[in-house]
Amino acid sequence: MLLSELAMATGLRYTGEDTDIVSIEYDSRRVKPGSMFCCIVGLVLDGHEFAEKAVQAGASALLTERQLPFDVPQIIVGNARKSMAEMAAAFYGYPQREMCMIGVTGTNGKTTTTYMVKSIAEQAGKKVGVIGTIRNMIGNESLPTDRTTPESVDLFRLLRQMADARVDIVVMEVSSHALEQFRVHGIKYDAALFTNLTQDHLDYHKTFDNYLAAKKILFQNAKKTVVNIDDQYAGRMMEGINVPSLSFGIRDKADISATNIDITTSGVRFDLHTPSGDCRMDLPIPGLFSVFNAMGSVGLALSVGLPLSCIKDGLESMTSVSGRIEAVTPKDHPFSVFVDYAHTPDALENVLKTVHEFAKSNIICVFGCGGNRDRAKRPIMGEIAGRLSDFVIVTSDNPRNENPMDIIASIEDGVKRSGTKYICIENRRDAIAKAIAMAQENDVILIAGKGHENYQEINGTKYHFDDKEIVEEILQK
User: Fold this and answer.
1) In terms of pLDDT, which residue wins out, 119 or 319?
2) Is the per-residue pLDDT at 251 higher than 90?
3) pLDDT value at 256 more than 80
4) Tell me: the pLDDT tens digits for 39-49?
5) What is the mean pLDDT of residues 113-135?
6) Domain range 95-316, CATH class
7) What pTM does this model have?
8) Confidence tier at 24 by pLDDT (50, 70, 90)
9) Hey, which end of the chain has fewer CB within 10 Å, N or C?
10) Residue 434 in this model has a pLDDT that exceeds 70
11) Looking at the chain, which residues constitute the CATH 3.40.1190.10 domain(s)?
């Protein structure tokens, strides 16, 4: 594609001669002859410092926020991230316009909800693309992912793959980082869901109001919305958003609601009430939050025209989502072990309350908090774990560049306030082994924080570590 064609499509101007663009890159290591290199200013690195390396690698043009001393065409803009998204969308032929686009945002429940929508849509005969935390999917094909919502260039490249594969519906998790960093800029969503909002990512957003404002961007770019009316921030999130909307909840009057809820170790049953009719649901994923995730997925399905019969069949055919209150032990095991991704105060409280709904004896909670992230939530999560568990084992999660024992000490402050029994074991494998060794009949062990992740990140290096594998190895011994 010619640079002049890209500039014309996006309304941007360039200096220098016209040239052919074969790819758009923001990582200088991926530049090849004919690439346009985008100088993105990040939290740690400034892409302008890598422009010379990109030019040496053959970059035929630069997208930059200031004039650089290189003899290649340059597009100089005020916000390179925003312009990069506009260029990427044009370069890949606006693939988002060829599919039904569904966005899911909120602190918790995003991943499970996307897989619920996938299951419903497939019951309706649709080919579905999924973009999210665990993996990206084109139909049944799985693709690896490094982050919840890809960078804009990677996202539009992936959407082009999906459109070319004749995907009908794309359902994607949209993170607050992605919204604020213009990663999804240029996408008009056919339907967007608000799951809930609790404290998270304040290391990046600094204030809760900033966090809420970032999430709100999704709904400012949606044709229809689906809203958890039971969440205290629903009103603020939807303020000024004047598009067709469906609400869901169990405490307040809502368009979609659930009654007669019966939660067991193997799932949850409830009466589902919708504008399209009512039905009895038998969902094979335990927990009250599963009811909320299901109602949110129902709202999205109805918003894009999927019938209630496919909604019921799709939800009831669900299996557990990787790392989301996922049972690791067989049903006849004397005690139960569950793995969950809960890494925020609200998520940890929800999953522990869910365990309380079916636990017949003691609850043992093994968890830690990630390094280089929101420090304020650590004692809060420690207090929640202590208050809702009979025994807590505080351990390491992904310490990243922090001292693991400093993180543990911060969590310990909160556990102490709860007054429950606890121990601190830095080595996560040893912590899991201790929980299994002390478990008695009918006890429930919850290993929280990492869920589907199969690594531990320590001092910039990712080491293979899978909570589920560790449990299985220890039980076999």
Assistant:
1) 119
2) no
3) yes
4) 999 878 899 99
5) 95
6) alpha beta
7) 0.81
8) very high
9) C
10) yes
11) 95-316
Superfamily grouping for domain 3-91: MurE/MurF, N-terminal domain (3.40.1390.10)
Residues of the chain with CATH 3.40.1390.10: 3-91
- Listed range (14-18, 98-102, 209-213, 385-389) with the worst mean pLDDT: 209-213
Count of Cβ atoms closer than 10 Å to residue 309 Cβ: 13
Q: Which fold has domain 326-476?
A: Protein-Tyrosine Phosphatase; Chain A (3.90.190)
Give start-end residues of each CATH 3.90.190.20 domain in the chain. 326-476
